[in-house]
Design goal:
- This protein has about 140 residues and is α/β, with parallel strands linked by helices.
- Helices cover about 45% and strands about 20% of the residues.
- It is built from six helices and six strands.
- The protein has helices spanning about 10-20, 35-45, 55-60, 75-80, 95-110, 125-130; strands at about 1-5, 25-30, 50, 65, 85-90, 115.
- Helix 4 (about 75-80) runs parallel beside helix 5.
């Protein structure tokens, strides 16, 4: 059984919670979110434990799911990697190319798995643009 800790349970974080619940062999240990409204809603709706200490949640998990505001991605991912935790992080991975490269190096050194969520790759509108051979970066 893989134990997952979720960092950030706002609008997108709730989608992640629902998806984790659908995966066999996964248990959501709890979540960290400083927003009391988000936290109380998740406690009520999902019955999950709220952690007030990021490290304690990481220590209780095998996998960390990061759906926080972007400016927290690097620090949470770095902390999780140093603890030998696997990481799923929403895009963008980090604020700068250097931070991204640092995380990739740390992942290799720690021999853990990390994935960046790029859900728009499967968006029908994006796929239609791609089929037109138009670079979506310029739209």
């Amino acid at each position: 059984m893989l134990r997952v800790g979720v960092f950030g349970v706002g609008h997108l974080g709730k989608f992640h919670l629902n998806n984790w619940k659908e995966i066999n062999g996964v248990k959501i240990v709890g979540f960290f979110d400083p927003n009391n409204d988000n936290a109380n809603q998740v406690i009520e709706q999902y019955g999950l434990k709220r952690y007030m200490d990021e490290e304690k949640l990481m220590d209780a998990c095998d996998i960390i799911d990061v759906i926080t505001p972007t400016d927290h991605h690097f620090s949470i991912c770095m902390q999780a990697i140093r603890k030998g935790k696997h990481v799923f992080v929403e895009k963008p991975l980090a604020h700068t190319i250097k931070e991204g490269r640092d995380l990739v190096s740390m992942v290799k050194e720690a021999n853990i798995k990390m994935q960046v969520g790029h859900v728009e790759r499967f968006n029908a509108a994006f796929l239609a643009i791609k089929d037109l051979n138009v670079n979506p970066m310029f739209i």
